[in-house]
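Deliverable D5.2: sample structural annotation.
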Amino acid sequence: MSKQSLSIVNPAGGGEACCAPLVREPLGETEAAELAPLFKALADPVRLRLLSLIACHEGGEACVCDLTAAFDLTAPTISHHLKVLKQAGLIDSERRGTWVYYWLNPGVLDRLSATLGPRATAASAS
């Protein structure tokens, strides 16, 4: 997994997603290379569940102690999966005392859903 950081939202500002849906126009080489690590990180069932647990946790962030209880895996294995999600740019974290708290990076789910979103139809555009 690459350790490069990814631009999750449009760097020009405005908070809108920086990519067009796949059904509207083909992905360019650069955009495909930027999106691939995100989808690769989510392709593992444990990481997908971890992301979901973090996203729906009260307050939008979850302590690693809350995450490990949901799996029949060792703490180092959970840490590895969290590291992969973080390296892909999907989550971020902060140590508070002995625990680490995780949250989704702003706009990451919007970017992924915008990429996979359906094309706007004439009926929905009006």
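Annotation notes: The helical segments are 29-42, 45-56, 64-68, 75-87, 108-116, 122-125. The two ends are 42 Å apart (CA to CA).
The annotation will be released with the project's public dataset once the embargo ends.
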